[in-house]
Amino acid sequence: MIQIFTTGGTIDKVYHDANSEFEVGHSTLPELLSESNIHEGYRLRELLRKDSLEMDDTDRELVVGAVAECDCSRIVITHGTDTMAETAAALAKVTGKTIVLTGAMQPARMRRTDAVFNIGFAWASVQLLPHGVYIAMNGEVFEAGSARKNLKAQKFERV
Question: Looking at residue 119, what DSSP letter applies?
Fold first, then answer.
């Protein structure tokens, strides 16, 4: 069984107008999993519904606590890309589990999104990687502490 936690971020953003007014809406994960032909073998729990720039240390501790208390040894977390690396670093104190964070550069509700690919990639990664904390984005896996978001290039890169 794989535990999936959602925290919000771009993957779940809903844009209201051309001026980029948005809110983080209900998670699109059930639809994304179904589109990826993943129908069972997971539990889904929403932890937060925030843009990752609004996440603080208290929010990160909530995520760490939920992961530490979870009885699953394989965990996927959807997260906003701006502070994904910080949450991955905070999760490094959790041992004995494979934890994979993923998200999207474009909201899942948009026609051209990387969300479906990233969810499928994270799903495969969490099953294949040894215990540890990872970021799985756009076909690359990074160990916690070894990646940062390159805003200009709209991708993650090694540090």
Answer: H
Convert the pLDDT of each residue in 5-36 to its tens digit.
Answer: 999 988 887 765 555 666 777 788 999 999 88
pLDDT tens-digit profile of 29-39?
Answer: 999 999 889 99
Instruction: Give the H or E element holding residue 92.
Output: none
Closest CA to 101 of 92, 110, 109: 92
Distance CA 49, CA 104 (A): 15
DSSP state of 54: G
Q: How far apart are CA 27 and CA 119, in angstroms?
A: 13
CA angle 39, 62, 87 (to 5 degrees): 80
Number of CB atoms found within 10 A of residue 146's CB: 15
Structure tokens at 6: 């959602």
Instruction: Give the separation between CA 104 and CA 35, rounded to whole angstroms.
Output: 15
CA distance 83 to 111: 24
pTM confidence score:
0.93
Nearest to 101 by CA among 125, 71, 59, 134: 134
